[in-house]
Automatic annotation (TrEMBL):
This is Iron complex transport system permease protein. GO terms for biological process: siderophore-iron import into cell. One of its GO terms (molecular function) is transmembrane transporter activity. Keywords: Cell membrane, Membrane, Transmembrane, Transmembrane helix, Transport. It comes from Tindallia californiensis.
Length: 339
């Protein structure tokens, strides 16, 4: 496994960039707030500062932008680290959090929730529920007498994803074209508009636990390519390790989709970008992916809400930026994953 020099300095650099992006995003939008006022407002709970800002500016930052910024960083980090873990699990650079069908299962649950009720908690609850149902079906299909084979899981994920995509299309077909359909379509395209503190109460514990699980097993991700016997001789239980990865990535993806809709390319592109910078050693790659994923989705979300008068769906921007980058990466590497 190759890694670049000075990984600690790189992580500190990424963390500083993330902090600067978060402060910058707090002031950017259709209602612009100068950077010095943003900094003063953010520091005011800690230090007794002389108010040099208006109540409107304070409300915009604390009630609207801070929750959205935190959720963007959390979801970006979660989807990115899920992609990195799944790529290590399947030893395939084209794998992302969509591979097991969880995203489309959660998307169907949310679409069903919008069709049946306008209650935010019902929508989120159904999205998480059907995300879990999707992985359950995938696991059941992929299970054989020999146990769960990775290639069977991929094929099962494709089948389950296609099934739930068809069910999403059916929901759109039967939805009221004037009231329900626009909400379903816009939500499925991904957005953090309307983010509240209640979303953080759901996202931080659940996505945070998933990220922490992958963080704790990052030392073992390098041995996933070994056989059961070789891994066992090194003291690693491959079955348990694979189950932990699938469980953590499923929880992260289902909760992320329940909060923001389906956002593509984050879990596919960011792990590759992180490898270009820090190398393939997962002890360094995982924290780098977490930080870079948070930076990426935060920048994308800031662009989405500030470039035009109408907010641009996140999946549109992630695809516009991610697809050319990934094409350039393929041309540069010739499709090779390892150096």
């Amino acid at each position: 496994m190759q890694t670049r020099r000075h990984p600690k300095k790189m992580m500190i650099g990424f963390a500083l960039i993330l902090a600067l992006c978060m402060m910058g995003a707090a002031g950017i939008g259709r209602y612009m707030i100068p950077f010095d006022r943003v900094l003063s407002i953010l520091l005011s709970p800690v230090f007794n500062l002389e108010p040099g800002w208006t109540e409107v500016e304070k409300t915009v930052i604390w009630s609207i932008r801070v929750p959205r910024i935190l959720l963007a960083v959390l979801i970006g980090a979660g989807l990115s680290v899920s992609g990195a873990a799944l790529q290590a699990l399947f030893a395939n650079p084209l794998v992302s959090s969509h591979v097991l069908g969880v995203s489309y299962g959660a998307g169907f649950g949310a679409a069903l929730g919008i069709l049946l009720s306008e209650n935010h908690f019902v929508i989120q609850g159904l999205a998480i529920l059907f995300g879990m149902i999707a992985i359950g079906i995938t696991y059941k299909i992929g299970h054989s007498k020999k146990g769960v084979q990775l290639y069977m899981l991929v094929l099962a994920g494709v089948i389950v994803g296609a099934l739930f995509q068809a069910l999403i299309s059916f929901i759109q077909y039967v939805a009221d074209p004037e009231e329900k359909l626009p909400s379903i379509v816009y939500w499925l395209m991904g957005s953090l508009g309307g983010t509240s503190l209640n979303d953080l109460k759901i996202g931080i514990p659940l996505i945070g636990i998933g990220i922490l699980m992958i963080w704790c097993i990052r030392w073992h991700l390098n041995v996933l390519s070994l056989s059961e016997e070789e891994a066992h001789s090194m003291g690693v239980n491959l079955k348990l390790l694979r189950s932990m990865i699938i469980g953590a990535t499923t929880m992260i993806t289902a909760v992320a989709v329940s909060l923001s809709g389906i956002i593509g390319f984050v879990g596919l592109v960011i792990p590759h970008f992180a490898r270009m910078i820090v190398g393939h050693e997962h002890r360094v790659l995982i924290p780098a992916t977490i930080l870079l994923g948070g930076i990426y989705l935060l920048v994308i979300d800031t662009m989405a809400r500030s470039v035009t008068a109408a907010e641009i769906p996140l999946s549109v921007l992630t695809a516009i930026i991610g697809a050319p980058f990934f094409a350039l990466l393929l041309r540069r590497t010739g499709g090779r994953w390892h150096d």
